[in-house]
Amino acid sequence: MILLLLLLQATDAHPLSDAQRATIRKDAETVVADPAASQSERGDALFKLGKFAESVTDYEKMLERDPALEKSHWRRGIALFYAGQYEKAARQFESYNSYDNIDRENGIWRYFSQYKAFGKDKAREGLLKYAKDDREPFPDVYQLFEGKRTPEQILEKIKSAELSEDDREMRSFYANLYIGLNFAVENKPDEARTHLRKAVANSWGPKGGYGPNYMWHVGRLHYELLTKK
C-alpha cells in the first residue's frame, strides 16, 4: 500500500522543479513591476501569475488604445475564460472567427466557453463550422467535442504516424493539452490532471514560439489549479 501511494504521488508530482516555477514567477513579477512594460506584456505576465482578472484589465486597456486589435485578441478570450467570464469569452472567440475562420484552436476555446456558460449540449450545437484543413492535431481534437473521436484514438494516431520527433512532440503537446482541458470542463479532474501534466512535461511546448509558449502556460496554470484542489 505504501509503495502504491508513493507511485501515485510520483505520477502526480509537478513536472517542473521548485526552482523552475520560482523563475517563472520572478520573471513575470519583474515585467509587472516595470513601468516601461507595455500593456500587452503586463497582461501576459499577470496571466502567467494566475492573476486572470487583472490580465483582462490590461488586455482591455490595449483595446481602448487600439480597437483594431479586438477581433484578433485571442489572449483576451483565454484570460476572460479563466476569470470566469464565460459568455464574454465566447463572444471574443466568435469575433476572432471573423478574423481567422480556419483556426480550429479558436473554435475549441469557444466550445469550452460555451460549455461553461450554457452546458455541453448547447456548446456542441454551437460548434463553429470549418471548411478548410487546419494544423494537426486540431481536426481530430475538434472531433472529440463532436463525439466522433476518443482521446485514445487521437493519441494512438499521433503515436503511429510517420513523423519527425519534433512534429510528434508538438502534436502530443496540443493533444494532451486539449484532451486535459476537455476533461477539466467536464469536471473530471483526475483524467484532466493526467493529460495536463503530460502537456506541461512536454519538451516542445515551452520552446515552440510565442503562441505555443502561451498555451504551455495555460496547461501549467490549469494543472496547478487542479492540484491545489
Describe the structure.
This protein is an all-alpha fold and 229 residues long. The chain folds into two domains: 23-133, Serine Threonine Protein Phosphatase 5, Tetratricopeptide repeat; 135-229, no CATH class. The chain is 72% helix and 0% strand. It has 13 helices and no strands. It has helices at 2-11, 18-33, 39-48, 52-65, 74-82, 86-99, 104-118, 120-125, 138-146, 151-160, 165-185, 189-201, 210-228. Helix 4 (52-65) packs antiparallel against helix 5 (74-82) and helix 7 (104-118) runs parallel beside helix 11 (165-185). It is globular and about 50 Å long. The relative contact order is 0.09. Mean pLDDT is 93; it is low at 2-10.
Give a short synopsis of this structure:
The protein is mainly alpha-helical.
How would the blueprint of this fold be written?
Blueprint: H1 2-11, H2 18-33, H3 39-48, H4 52-65, H5 74-82, H6 86-99, H7 104-118, H8 120-125, H9 138-146, H10 151-160, H11 165-185, H12 189-201, H13 210-228
Helix pairs in contact: 2-3, 3-4, 4-5, 5-6, 5-7, 6-7, 7-9, 7-11, 9-11, 10-11, 11-12, 11-13, 12-13
Main traits of this protein?
Serine Threonine Protein Phosphatase 5, Tetratricopeptide repeat; mainly alpha; 229 residues
